[in-house]
Amino acid sequence: MRPELVIFDCDGVVVDSEPLSSQFIRDDLAAHGLDLRRDQIMDLFLGGTITGVAQRARELGATLPADWVELFYPRLCDHLARGTPMIPGIVTVLQALDAARLPYCIGSNGRHAKMRSTLSQHPELATRFTTNVFAAQDVARPKPAPDLFVHAARCMGHAPDHCVVIEDSPTGARAARAAGMRCFGYAPDGNGTELAAEGACVFHAMTELTQLLAL
Question: What is the gyration radius of the CA atoms in the chain, in angstroms?
Fold first, then answer.
C-alpha cells in the first residue's frame, strides 16, 4: 500500500556520512583515551546522537571535557562539509516520489547544522530538503523514542499510521515502530538482521524503494 508520507533518516540513507563521521569520532575519542576500532564505533553509536556518544564514551573511560559536545560538533560539521557523497540511488527515488506527487521529509537524530553541511553540497538534495527537515533538537527525546517521527508527520500534515520510515539503524527502526509507522530498513552491506529484529522490512539497494513504495 502506498503511504501518504515518506520520512527518510539522513545519515546513511540520504547522504553517505557515516564512514566519515565514525572515523572522525574514533580519532577524537582515541585522543581522549578511548581507542576503539571503527566497527566498534559503528556498533556503539550508529543512529544515536553526539550527546549519546559523549555519555557512553565517558562510561567506557574517555576523559572528555564537560563541553566536549559543543566543541566537537562544529568540527564534525566542518569535516563533513569537505566532501560527503550521496547514497547511490537516492536521487532516483526522490525523482520517483516527485513524479508520484508523494511528499517526503527527513527525520534525523543529527542536528540541523550537520544536515546543512552535508545536504547543501548536492543541489539535487538541497532543493528538495528545505523546510521539510526535522532534527532531534526539535523534540524532547531523540530516537529510539517516537517523538521525532511523530513530530515530522504532524508538521507535514499526516497521521503516523499513514507514514513510512526509511532507516539504516536499529535505533531508528525502533523509533518507527514506537511511532506506529512502517519501516523499510536499508542494509547495503547485506546484513539487516538487527533491522529486521526491530520490525523493519529490509532492502539492500536504494532503487528497490520505488517498488516497495508502490511508485
Answer: 17
Helix (H) or strand (E) holding 98: helix 90-99
pLDDT at 123: 97
Opening angle at CA 199, ends 195 and 205, nearest 5: 50
pLDDT < 50 stretches in the chain: none
3-state secondary structure of 209: helix
Query: Going from the N-terminus, what domains does the chain have, and what CATH number goes with each?
Result: 5-16+84-212 (3.40.50.1000), 18-80 (1.10.150)
What the block records as the C-alpha cell of 88 is 547511490
- Residue 140 Rama label (left phi>0; alpha psi -120 to 50; beta): alpha
The three cell numbers locating residue 133: 527537515
Amino acid, single-letter form, for residue 11: D
3-state secondary structure string, 173-199?
Answer: HHHHHHCCCEEEEECCCCCCHHHHHCC
Global confidence as pTM: 0.92
75, 113 contact by CB (below 8 A)? no
87, amino acid identity: I
Amino acid residing at 141:
R
Closest CA to 108 of 46, 158, 29, 57: 46
